[in-house]
Amino acid sequence: MNARGQVVMTQIQRSQWKNRLGFILAAAGSAVGLGNIWRFPYMVGENGGSIFIIVYLLCVLLLGLPIMIAEITLGKITQRNPVGAFKVLAGERSPWQMVGFSGVLAAFVILSYYSVVAGWCLDFIWKSLTGVFQPGHTMAEVTSIFQQLTANPRAQTFFHGLFMVMVVVIVLAGVQRGLQRWNEILMPALIFILLVLIAFSMRQSGANQGLQFILRPDPSKLTGHSLLAAMGQCFFSLSIGMGAMLTYGSYLRKQQRVPPATGWVVGMDTGIALLAGFVVFPVVFTFGQQPQQGPGLVFVTLPAAFLQMQGGTAIALAFFILLLFAALTSAISMLEVVTAYFTDEFNMTRRLAALMSGTVCFLMGTGCAYSGAYLDFLDTLASNYLLPLGALFISLFVGYKVNKELTRGEFRGTWYAGLFGVWHLCIRVIAPALVIVVFLNSIGILDKLLSK
Ligand code: PHE
Questions:
Q1: Rounded (5°) CA angle 418-424-428
Q2: Is 64 in the pocket of ligand 1 (CB under 6 A)?
């Protein structure tokens, strides 16, 4: 390793969160993002409403929470990047490090299209500032504004590039920690705006229909694919399965315990996604929209709702700025994974690693500006396959390869010490079995096996 790389590396390894709040804010910053506000509502819309939400909540409880504890603990124990963590515990040549590789790959894939969607946010901020959005705009007008954007590769590429530059600059300037601090103000502000919007939504004529859609389950809507989608959404929204939480966990101090912090992060992430659902669907039905319209859903319904309210353009502006911020703190955690990997494993400088990765992601993402199907493909690949696979192996690794006494240390002497057994059973048996069943089910193998 060259001298510079060494310095950088020790800096990364040694830097630690000042206190528990610092870690919770960073982890929540990674978790709360476009996944909650953009992806969750359209997934609910495409996969049958209420029943999807129920399955999603089960996934969060049985997979998300235990696996996030496992992933963060892995980082805390090893103090390494995702590939290094497996090398430290399983040996230099162990095939387990493939799990780390798949995480780095997932980070590349997700960041490349995530930035395109965040670019839509930037475009909407621009439109709110320049008077393109006018009070009283109808749903049809807002829809056409959004369609013009998705039909305009140049504008999308521009804002995608702008977002990527912001992410790279923040990671390079090393100001993430400062930025995460802003979460203390901005996250509550985002929740506040969502609550104001819910108050608005509930007074709309479609409120009942919207509430029925998200509260009255229709089990016939449950398919193999929607189960897979719920699982993928759970891993995507909680940022697990690719080492982002592992990397953040590697900056934890010994005395900081993982389970309660994880509980906070999972609770916040899930709460914000549910709030977004309560905002979106009443509006969807009020304006006679289709819940299953896909990735454009919130970019059409939310502005349409804002513009019916007094001071709507200002609210739209505030909302998209908050959403942009939430997207930034998530994107930073993705770039952090690849940057930590290249600096640790290839002796690269932090600067080169971040610039190179940002450029590759930018190039990979530009295809999304030309084709929505390509965006969908990248999204499905990462969320439904790479993240669940990563999560599956993290869970098996922590369950079977990591010394039980090490993980027990996270629970020992606390009020939740008695839950260690439950957690361990979850990551050894329940979570891996569920992931495998959902996989087999989604490709129809389970049906064939059962009918034999
Ligand atoms: N959880 C983030 C969101 O909801 C996305 C993300 C996925 C971030 C994977 C990091 C790792 O927007």
A1: 160
A2: no
